[in-house]
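Weekly structure sync, notes
Attendees: PL (lead), two postdocs, one rotation student
Agenda item 3: pending single-chain targets
PL asked that the sequence for the first pending target be pasted directly into the notes so everyone works from the same version. It is reproduced below exactly as submitted, 133 residues in total.
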Amino acid sequence: MAQFDQILLFYNQLLNMADEIHELINKEMYDLIMDKMNNHDKLFIQIKLAKKCTKFTQEEQDEIDRLEDVLRVKEKENIELLKTNMAAVKIELDRIKFKSKIKKAYGQFNHSEEQGSIIDIDDSYRPEQSKEE
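Predicted structure, written out during the meeting:
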């Protein structure tokens, strides 16, 4: 396999990986994304090393530039989607923290009302006696 063909194969793998990462972001499977990113980094290093050792024709360089542009667009989309998801998660976490703070702040009042002491018993309460007695 020629060096150029191998580089094209690596770029196609990166493009497929970008699509997979996009799907994983939508499914909020962030652990799997990290695994994919490790593989992404390895492929990127292999491409960089292969490009250093190869002289390309103008047509080959144009093809590589085109693939890099497509990859750049896909990765920017993934980053934007991830930023959007992170913002939504932050809003939800802030909402949950706020609810927790309110419960904690006002929970002490409810807690003392639910608990009782034998000293707090009201003797004036008498159940109604039935009229038959």
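Discussion points:
- The domain at 3-112 is CATH 1.20.58 (Methane Monooxygenase Hydroxylase; Chain G, domain 1).
- Helices lie at 3-26, 30-52, 58-114.
Action: rotation student to compare against the earlier draft before next sync.
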